[in-house]
Amino acid sequence: MVRTTARLLLVCATVLPLGAAAQERSIFDDVRIEVTPESHGVDPYPNELVMLRIRGTYRPLINIAHMIQPPLTNFGWTNLTRDVAYDAEFDGFPAKTFERVIAIFPEKSGELEIGSFTHKLSVVDGAGQRTLEVKSAPIKLKVAEWTGPGGPRDPKQWWLPSAGVRVTDQWSGDPNRVPRGETLRRTVTIEADGVMAEQLPPSPVMRSPGVISFRGPIDRETRVTENGPVARAVYRWDMRPTTAYPAIVEPIDIPWFDTRSRTMRKAVIPAQRMAWAVSGAPADASAAPAEAAPGPWATAGAGALAFLTGLALLTIGRRGAGAPRLPPRALYAMRIAAWRRDPVAFRAAVTRLARAEPEASRLWARDPEARAGLAELDRHLFDAAAAPPPALGRLGRRIASARAAAVAAGRTARSGLKPLDGPA
């Protein structure tokens, strides 16, 4: 009897641990976590988006779950969506699947390692409540080395790998008709798919002859979607013409790498013409009513006027190109504005002077001292606190002197015709 009891106890002592071990193995065999980088069959370049999908499938009933992410050394990253859970099957048995997707951006070329993700679980099964730690296997991601021109290591060109880049250009008014003395706000928006806001380029430099620009504030934001981040940057400039003639704001190319076609492309901020608005345009003469037929006194007056006009032309022809000529009123207005120390009126008078004498203004506008003074004046008009006004009296005298030389040069160029009555 004693032997039988001893044998039963020995069998129980042997069977119970085996059963417990089998139960524990079944628990660990019924949980699984996998990490999959989605690179679409190509090796990404540095700073290119890679979607990292973490998926865990578990048969036991889970009470508490907590994901521990490894330190992603040599990667930038951001969460895209919240963790999702849905019903699934595990070897034909009902199970629960948890999924997380993060966006990672490799920071350099080579074979980079992604460590193990650990899912801490509190599960309930036939053996009661247990705490498990399920770990994914470490994986390695191969990041390609750029071999073409430009690329992530080129300090002269911004590296922007994206699935799509869009550029919009807006002006606060018509750049072809800028009101006198005012500035326009230019707003350029760049949107790029698959990048973060800090990956967008810095504010481009708007430099074009005949245009002055001042950089405004920049807004950056990243919108997270299921397909990856979408970056948006808004750049602003305050701009105005600096000459009386139309100027062209040059286009700006923004190179970017198309991650879909695997080719370099360019987005363009378009060129734009800028000019002051024309003021004092004459009314439409076609709308004037028809006048009555001229009377005899009007006919006689017209004849006398024609005679005097012909006589004046003959006199001018005899004297040549050196006939006296009154300077335009804008020149007097410029001198008065300089005496009053009124930079706004001074700039308006200079613009009227250039429009009154387009040929001469093309010559005196090339004068280095006059050009530098006008540029200094424009900077002061735009931001009086940042730029002091120039000496208007000296600038006015320089413009008047350059204008006189330009007018004299124009008369000399036109004096090539022989006098009507032969040489003197």
From TrEMBL:
InterPro entries: BatD (IPR025738). Keywords: Signal. Residues 1-22 form the signal peptide. The keyword Signal applies. It comes from the Bacteria. This is Oxygen tolerance. It comes from Chenggangzhangella methanolivorans.
